[in-house]
Specification:
By secondary structure, the chain is an alpha/beta fold. It contains nine helices and nine strands. Strand 1, helix 2 and strand 2 form a beta-alpha-beta unit.
């Protein structure tokens, strides 16, 4: 693949097909950021990048990304909507329903922002694995990606998806060509921590998962910097599962939650193998999580499932 030629082709395509104003759903990940930069080259001030803080973002995410968007020269707006997303998911525990609800809530907010900006088009960073795993035609639905199967049929905005036929490794090539800082950033699900808290979602549980995920990322990146891990995993994170077990905090009985640590190596996200992290690194992660989260978490386990049979994310 020639990333320069791809960018030129997509800029020409967007310039000819998008006649009015557009908004881009910008998460700060490599896919949506590459899509935003390409479309910005094509239509400039007629593009508004919309970042939605759902309340399911990683620790310090919104503040970091706001600075990055400004550095890219993108006309952008941050929408803080955590109350709306938590209210929409109240009592819902089914993984597929959670993704669909989140997708529809995103579109509802994007359509509101589009109306205020007088935009007719919605740009998304959809890539090939998103629509392949979401099913359709002869393909089985593995899981509904919120930007594909979560879209409502009655959506008024016209979709623009410049990366639709690319895989993640190809998107990274384009990101490097465009000199985008997040080119090597690990993937993060569009629904965020809402699908890393299995079952129903509460603010307390998301808070636990947010802290655990930050610890996993920090310890693995530290180990890589110190030479304890030769290469960073493709993706590494934590999952809060609805399982409690007996533990001991000091001399007191505790009955806390279970955190799963997940780290995988992949090229295009279609297949993956679990990472063989050194025991010392796993021990550091476990110790920090249980010390930091106190009696909330009494057990930390490591997921050694490949894809297939598992998926990278748990929901």
């Amino acid at each position: 693949m020639d990333p320069g030629r791809f960018v030129e082709e997509q800029v020409r395509s967007v310039s000819s097909s998008v006649q009015g104003r557009a908004i881009v759903a910008l998460s700060g990940g490599v896919d949506s950021t590459v899509a935003a930069v390409i479309v910005n080259r094509a239509i400039g001030e007629r593009l508004l990048a919309v970042y939605v803080d759902t309340g399911f973002m990683r620790k310090g995410e919104t503040e970091r990304l706001s600075s990055m968007f400004s550095g890219l020269g993108l006309n952008h707006r941050i929408v803080r909507a955590s109350d709306e997303f938590f209210d929409a998911l109240e009592g819902e525990s089914d993984a597929e329903r959670k993704r669909v609800i989140i997708g529809r809530k995103f579109i509802e907010l994007f359509e509101k922002e589009a109306g205020e900006f007088d935009a007719e088009y919605l740009v998304q960073g959809t890539i090939a694995p998103d629509w392949i795993e979401s099913g359709g035609s002869l393909r089985d639905r593995i899981k509904s990606h919120h930007n594909v199967a979560g879209l409502p049929r009655e959506m008024k905005l016209k979709l623009v998806e410049p990366l639709r036929d690319l895989y993640k490794d190809e998107v990274r090539l384009v990101a490097r060509y465009l000199n985008i800082a997040v080119s090597e950033r690990q993937p993060f699900p569009g629904p965020g921590l809402a699908v890393r808290v299995l079952g129903s979602v509460s603010r307390e549980d998301v808070g636990i998962e947010r802290e655990a995920c930050a610890i996993v990322e920090e310890e693995i990146e530290k180990a890589h910097a110190e030479g304890k891990i030769e290469a960073l995993p493709w993706q590494y994170f934590s999952v809060l599962i609805p399982v409690r077990s007996v533990g001991v905090q000091g001399d007191v009985r505790a009955y806390g939650r279970t955190i799963v640590v997940r780290a995988v190596m992949s090229r295009d996200a279609m297949t993956a193998r679990f990472s063989h992290l050194p025991p010392e690194v796993l021990e550091n992660i476990s110790t920090r999580i249980t010390n930091t989260l106190g009696r909330s978490v009494t057990r930390v386990v490591y997921d050694i499932t490949n894809k297939p049979p598992g998926t990278i994310e748990w929901e």
